[in-house]
Specification:
The chain is mainly beta. Helices cover 8% and strands 43% of the residues. The longest helix is centred in the last third of the chain and has 7 residues.
């Protein structure tokens, strides 16, 4: 509760400052998931399939993809990264430069660079890549084919087998 001062003098009101002019604020940048910011630094573009989306068919394109929903069919994104998020469930063959698995993938995967199966991830299918990383706690069932980066020139450099005639 407010009590007036004992001296009996009235309190002088403090002068109110003049209102500042209204300045327009710049628009806030659009929301971008943390995985999207780090996923494709070269292009800066990444498409996202959200938790509630279910796609059946073929996905192809020229940008990286983050999957947190369900996908059935095939994914072909050469030269880009495909990331299967923690909620992602993929039943498809996947072809990309780099494949990161945090969720579940059923199908063969082929990467020109690397396949990374994180601790929470599960991959059932064959892997063909130049490099593969499987963290402790990850699930993997399938075959692994480690390919050299120049697999085309290595195959051409092999000498033909000598033939013997009787």
């Amino acid at each position: 509760m407010w009590k007036p001062s004992q001296s009996g003098s009235s309190v002088s009101p403090t002068p109110t400052p003049a209102p500042e002019p209204v300045r327009p604020t710049p628009p806030a940048p659009a929301y971008e998931p943390p995985a999207a910011r780090a996923a494709s630094p070269a292009t800066g573009e990444q498409a996202t399939i959200g938790k509630s989306l279910y796609i059946k068919g073929e996905i192809s394109g020229s940008e990286s993809l983050f999957i947190d929903g369900k996908v059935e069919g095939s994914i072909n994104l050469p030269g880009n990264r495909v990331t299967v998020g923690r909620n992602g469930q993929v039943s498809a063959s996947v072809t990309a430069r780099e494949i990161v698995v945090l969720g579940k993938v059923r199908g063969n995967v082929s990467a020109t660079d690397r396949v990374d199966i994180r601790a929470e991830g599960a991959l059932t299918g064959d892997v063909a890549a130049a490099r593969i990383s499987i963290e402790d706690g990850a699930f993997f069932k399938g075959g692994i084919d480690i390919r050299k980066p120049d697999s085309k020139s290595a195959a051409a450099a092999e000498a033909p087998k000598p033939t013997t005639q009787a």
